[in-house]
Here is the input.
Amino acid sequence: MFEKLKQLAYGARYLLSRRGEKTFVELPGRRVQLWHGGEGVPFVYLHSGLGETTWLPFHDTWAKDFHVFVPAHPGFAESTGIELIDTIDDLALHYVELFDKLGLDAVCLGGVSLGGWLAAEFALRWPERVHRLWLADAPGLWSDEYPYADLFRYVQEPAKLRELLFHDPRGAMATMIIRDLKEMNEETFVAAYRALRTLARLTWERPYNPKLSLRLGRIRCPVLILWGESDRLIPPVYAELYARSIAQSRAEILKNCGHLPMFEQEAAFVQLIRDFCRT
Here is the structure.
């Protein structure tokens, strides 16, 4: 009953998150779904492979201090153009074109998981356009000693997915975010299928960049690295591996947290990033 009340409370917060506005941006050969809201320094959130592509409470909190942009990657939500994207390099080029279209010269940039990897790849290519960078539980680097877990192995086993992605797989957020198949309506099922298909296109063969560690030194801005202490998909050791490769960086480990800190430890996650980007 207590976990159900938590879910209802989050649902109420979602309905009361009113700073965001949904729009679309046209780029050559593709259309980008974009939520944005708030005023101040431009702050771009790059979502994970989970596909958190709507305006959520944690976006709404940041929008009290920043102009928050939440684009959906090609192939997610209502964004098109996935047929033009084969690699993380293609995705980075997609975003520089989007930033040009939006007139975003310099931003606070960050993301979770796939979004964090993408943020790092963007910042090392166009360092002058990022004045604060953060990433959370991101792939991209690789160590044979600490391989990632195989996410795709469990796509039809929601209970296993929750164990992989959450510190508390039976908690309110875990059971709300990763639903049993029989609980999904058609719209939710189609969105989940599209997200999984796009994630597989980008990461199935190689969910990392073997050249990334040698290139991270190109990043010029301060960097905040966040990691869930109980991340069973991408081990927390990667927080230190990222920090070693980036000069102006620090790593923070979030306790009682798995792979998705924006849901499992929202308050700490939002505050750490807010303070970092306001500095």
